[in-house]
Amino acid sequence: MRKNQGINYIWRWMLSGLMFCLSFIGLLSVAHADSINYQTFKYGTSTTSMADGYYVKPAQITVSGNKYVITMTIRTANDLTAWPVVVNSIDGQAPQNVSKTRSGSSYDYSYSFTESDLNKVISSNISINVPGVYTATHNISFKFDTSDLPSKSGGNSQTESTTAVGTNDPSLNTKLKKLTSQASSQSKAASKKESQLAVSISQQNLATAKQNRYNAALFYYVLVIGLVGLVILIGSVGYFIWRGKYHPRH
């Protein structure tokens, strides 16, 4: 009897442990499905954008009807001032659910957008404003990892239409064209400044290299002259010692 009770007791513990493991695996699966990784590129290229380091990865993803709602966060250090990066548009729509919060010594700018097809490249227009340091508008592109997307399901059209507010804004296309034009002009100006800076740095490097060669040659000549002088001095001292020893004055 006691033996059977002991076996039942062991089986209960084993089943409890199994249920715990299955629940834990389920939670991990849900957490994984709620996030999506991505890359940030310079607009129209596969080159990593300088803005990539500011985007928190992974992004958060949920399903609303037959569309995905992606929430992204831009995190900047406090020495760049408060929330220096602002999203003007993403995937042809105004950013939704924008929130600005503090995260330790950093500033978080979070926003969301809706999209039915994440296999395509998603473009965005952002403004960067660090007073006295850098001010510009840039176009960037995102490529999302769609290897493990949550499945879509039929949903509530009211929620979907609420989430997508701003997609059909009549003035949005005009704003986007204006921002794209500004970004293009600023990119050209930035490229010109970068070229001028590269030429200036190259000239400085050449001048520095020339000066270094001159200094090296001068050091070599001084070293040789010093060694020759030292040899002559040692020889002279030796000569006078020898002379004093073998040819003393009377």
Automatic annotation (TrEMBL):
Every NEAT domain range: 29-160
Pfam families associated with the record: NEAT (PF05031)
Alphabetical list of PROSITE patterns matching this protein: NEAT (PS50978)
Cross-referenced CDD domains: NEAT (cd06920)
Compartments in which it is found: Cell envelope
Disordered: annotated span: 149-172
Keyword Signal attributed: yes
Record field: transmembrane: 218-242
Signal peptide range in chain numbering: none
Keyword annotations from UniProtKB, A to Z: Membrane, Signal, Transmembrane, Transmembrane helix
Domain of life: Bacteria
One Gene Ontology cellular component: cell envelope
Protein name, as recorded: NEAT domain-containing protein
Organism the protein comes from: Limosilactobacillus gastricus PS3
